[in-house]
Amino acid sequence: MPIRLFNIPALDAAAEAAARRRQDSLTKPRGSLGALEDIACRLAAVQGDPQPVIRKKRIVVAAADHGVVAEGVSPYPQEVTAQMVANFLRGGAAINVLARQAGAEVVVVNAGVKFDIPGGDSGVVQVGSARGTENMARKPAMSRAQAEMLIEEGARMAHQLATDGADIIATGDMGIGNTTAAAAITSVLTGRQPAEVTGRGTGLDDAGLKRKIAVIERAITLHGPDPHDPVGVLAAVGGCEIAFLVGLMLGAAERRVAIALDGFISTAAALVAHVTEPRVTDFIFACHLSAEPGHRIALDHLKLRPLLDLNMRLGEGTGAALGLQVIEAAVRLHNEMATFEEAAVSGRQDDGRGVESRSAARSRMPSPAPTTVGYPSPEGRGETRRSPGRRAKRK
User: Fold this and answer.
1) DSSP string, 235-281
2) pLDDT over 70 at 280, yes or no
3) Which residue of the set 71, 148, 254, 316 is catalytic?
4) Per-residue pLDDT for 386 more than 50?
5) In this predicted structure, which of 143-157, 310-324, 326-340, 348-362 has the lowest mean pLDDT?
6) CA 362 to CA 342: how far, in whole Å?
């Protein structure tokens, strides 16, 4: 088990109900904004505020290397991981472009990159001293102590970002070979066969895909990880960046900060986080569906419904960056649209909404409210709590 238990609060049922009442009072047919209404109400439950806000967005991209690359599971050399970290720092990667579009800050974490970063590591958050994992096909990927340390460091970063005012944290990753680790984790924790959850990653041909599946099967047989032991699964077949993201999600949920989940790698981390503390998924918005076959299986296992399906499989947090914009759009609609009464618009005659008369409504109109700047499927929702107040202060 991790070093400590994670104290994740229940969702705020009173805030969610109040948000739903507001949605039903806005100038639109009830339910006409579909999932956008659900997103806003879910965020209200997360933040404990009927009118949630998104002011500070952070995208955390954790990078690390994987010893299993020695088995020929990727067409790219491991040097690419360090080179891409340098690209992140220069602002030239896809995630940088989409983060700028979303108005989000990118935080780059070195959780275990094998090679030195070209141009230096200024601007990188260094976690631990590992240079990646061992080859899981021949020995455990890492020690339990290392997995526990990475989880704790991820949680520590989430707490710091929350203290600095982050309202939502998006997950991202970089690591040649990390779809192999993600597929192995997904197979163990969902009970599906490696062949069902393993994809081509960065572009394997048919022979490479067969080899990748065989490597994962060999690693799982060798270590026999217990699906009820999340740290043991990470130690046997995980990745350093995946372990870090596990802690990042658990720490964010502890502080009532929403989590914008990226693709397959991040969702493998979410599987581990869920085994550690099931309530974490209440705080996760699944931003997109990756082209990797294991991603849908993992999302279904977590009962998470993706916001977007664009056939993406890049990683880096790119799907999460796009999802952030959908989530923010949902929040702005929720907070900035007028109600039927405010706008003096007649509502349905059979539900009591709208106005008795336009002149009477205008006389009662309040001053305009100040402008404010993925979600679990219904059957996957966890316990909620009731709270009389607005937003609960973050500790």
Assistant:
1) HHH--HHHHHHHHHHHHHHHTT-EEEE-SHHHHHHHHHHHHH-GGGG
2) yes
3) 316
4) no
5) 348-362
6) 7
- The domains of the chain are located at 1-395
Q: Is 16 a catalytic residue?
A: no
Up-side HSE of residue 10: CA atoms within 13 Å toward CB? 11
Over residues 332-379, the pLDDT tens digits come to 999 999 999 999 998 777 665 554 433 343 334 444 443 323 556 545
Cα 63 to the center of its chain, rounded Å: 16
pLDDT of residue 110: 98
For the domain spanning 1-395, the CATH number is: 3.40.50.10210
> What Å distances lie between residue 351 and 22, 28, 29, CA to CA?
14, 13, 11
Mean pLDDT highest for which of 107-111, 340-344, 378-382?
Answer: 107-111
- How many helices (H) does the chain have, and how many strands (E)? 15, 10
Please tell me the predicted confidence (pLDDT) of residue 376: 62
What's the token pair of residue 239? 């990745």
Q: Would you state the structure tokens that stand for residue 222, as one six-digit string?
A: 């060798």
Query: With the C-alpha atoms ordered 293, 298, 301, 306, is the resulting torsion angle positive or negative?
Result: negative
Predicted confidence at residue 394, as pLDDT, reads: 45
Which 3-state string (H, E, C) describes 354-385? CCCCHHHHHHHCCCCCCCCCCEECHHHCCCEE
Asked if residue 186 lies in contact with residue 275, where contact means CB atoms within 8 angstroms, the answer is no
